[in-house]
Amino acid sequence: MSDSTPQDSTGLLTSEAPSDPTPPAKQSKPRRRVLIEWTAIIVIAVLVSFLMRTYAFQTFFIPSASMEPTLQIGDRIIVNKLAITWGTIHVGDIVVFKAPPGAAALCQETEPVIDFVKRVIGVPGDSLKSKGNTIYVNNQPLDETWTHTEPLGTAITPITLKANQYFMMGDYHSNSCDSRVWGTVPRSDIIGKAFVRIWPLSRIGFL
What we know:
This protein is α+β, with helices and mostly antiparallel strands. The protein has four helices and twelve strands; from the N terminus they run H-E-E-H-E-H-E-E-E-E-E-E-H-E-E-E.
C-alpha cells in the first residue's frame, strides 16, 4: 500500500496547507451611535446635577467673619435644602438665606450681597430681647451651646416674631450685621441648613 502523505523534494513529510477562511469582521458600534450614547450620558449627568443643586444640596463660600469661630473666612459648606422644604427650623440651626432688601447698604457692604449665613435664635411665636450680653427668648436666657464670641454688641430691641418670621444672628455677636439691624427673615427666603464643612481639609466636619 502506498503512503499518500505528500513529501517535499528532500523526502520530508509535509502537511497539506490548511484552508484560511477570512475571519468575520468584528462588529463595531457605528460612530454615530457612540456619539448619541455619550451625549445622552452627559445630558443626564448635567440634568441630575442641576436638580440636586436646585432642590437638594448646594455649596456656599463664607466671605466674612460674622460666624466666627464656627465658620471662618474661606470656609466652604454644603447646605441641605430639603431640610427646609420638608423639615422644621429650630433655634441653633445655621441657615443660608437670601439677603434682606437693603441689607447690603445697612451693613455697609462694598460688594453686592446675594445670600447670608447666620444662626437662628428665634422662631415664629418667640419673644426676644437682650440685657447686657444675655439674650432672652420668651423671658429665659438663651442657652448658647454652640461656640460664639461676646460681647453682644448691638442690643436686641424687644420683638415678638409673627408666623413665618425668623430672627438671625452671627456667632461673632459684636461683628455681625444681622436681624438686629435689618429685621427678621421670612421662611420663604431661607435656602437651606448648613450641615457640613468641606473646606479647608483640616476643618472638615459636621456643623
